[in-house]
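ugh finaly. both done.
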Amino acid sequence: MKRALIVIDVQESFRALPSWERIANPKIADPVNRLVGLARAEGDQVIWVLHTEPGSGGAFDPEQGRTRLLEELERPAPGEPVLHKTAHNAFTTTRLQRLLTEAGVRELVVCGIRTEQCVETTARVGSDLGYGVVFVTDATTTHPIGALSAESIVERTEAVLRDRFARIATVAELEAESGAFTA
């Protein structure tokens, strides 16, 4: 079964926001880089996704120059697509599904910024489209929302996705399985 790692919104735009000070894991690039290395070693496709809000004048407006991968991240290798989305999930406003279909991908490994927003939404849509989904929680991050801590948001996300939309895994679990993980 062919897999693809989808790296969602791990971008400088978030560092420009005041909420970055409260992000649960400001070193999100570390676990994401481990996943990228694992995917490449396994021969899996790696697809990079960046959120954009053209014309907004904000941190996600490409004209502001922050809609780029975090500096600490591995750079996309030749042949690894970099998609730009304007919706919460990585499918609706991109050619992601076409790329996956053409490559024969049946399983997605998802990670990125805003555990409960763009990463969760991509996992749900991917599941609805028939993909097996592995949600790598420790390669996601978010910040508190209102009275909810980042930790409680992550717990809630795991609870609603587990065994319904995705298999929940950690980077270390996937590394230990190397070559054998499936949704």
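ok and the 2nd:
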Amino acid sequence: MDITIHASFLPHDDPDAALAFYRDTLGFEVRNDVGYEGMRWITVGPAGQPGTNIVLHPPAADPGITEDERRTIAEMMAKGTYASIVLATSDVDGTFERLQASDAEVVQEPVDQPYGVRDCAFRDPAGNMVRIQQLKGQ
């Protein structure tokens, strides 16, 4: 089988703030920016990896979600417990320093975890957890 991960989805509640974080702070390329009925879907991804994408989407856009579910999603996003992503870098400490110098919300400074990785964590503007791990062997 030849299967790859093409896209992951993270919610946003402010498309301009999400764009600033993923494009300007993390340095991702903007691959698509689509508006529809007052909502925006923004596709970003790391330079040099055109097949790997993160779609930043409005969480209320799914027509199958009830109003109660929309409220629950908004509450979980506000608490930072709704969505997360794990990224990897060859220099987690250097990446942490660059992100800390921005206005990104630090959740965890770089640390060697008992499960064998060195990582740090931030929250994006929508409250999504962004963990960044050191690539193995580097």
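summary for the 2nd one i guess: The radius of gyration is 16 Å.
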